[in-house]
Amino acid sequence: MKGNRIEFCKDELTWIEAQKTTPRRQAHAEFVRRFNRPDVSLTNFTALCKRKGWKTGRTGQFKKGQTSWSKGKKRPFNANSAQTQFKKGDAPANRLPLWSERHNEDGYIEIKVPQRNPHTGSSTRFMHKHRYLWELENGPLPTGMCLKALDGDKTNTDPSNWKMIPRALLPRLNGRFGRDYENAAPEVKPLILATAQLEHAAREAKKR
What pLDDT shows up at residue 78? Predict the structure, then answer.
């Protein structure tokens, strides 16, 4: 249920309009004292000004040439805030050291290596461990190529277990129209891979 409508006399309205640039809380307190209107809350007072379009003139933005309140001050501005601020040279408590390993959501092992992160600019990054070890022996993986675990085990990071294949070959091994390479018997996997490679090569030749 809505409350009773609050009425204002002409003198009150004239005074409020004249004080529109005064901070609302200050103007409201003075209004209540001057006109003995304890029934008018700050919310009522503010709502009236908004209905009448009596704006304070303040936007909350810095004006051209205005000096910031923090100019010349050194951080922390509040002594208590220093307790929760990072200091130069500090590292988060959950930061993992170099060469740490983890499993990602796709089942691959990732390792933290001393390589620049192209997304953040950090001097370290996580990357697939099998790729990192493979590239140490064979050089950077060419664009459009990927690595496939010969035994189907994503956690077997030995470089000899990974074969470089065109990324376009992956749907022929698994996926909707693949041959379920991951779950095939070990003795059948080489045949599936060879067949997929032959089909892919034939398709590429036909394109040319």
Answer: 66
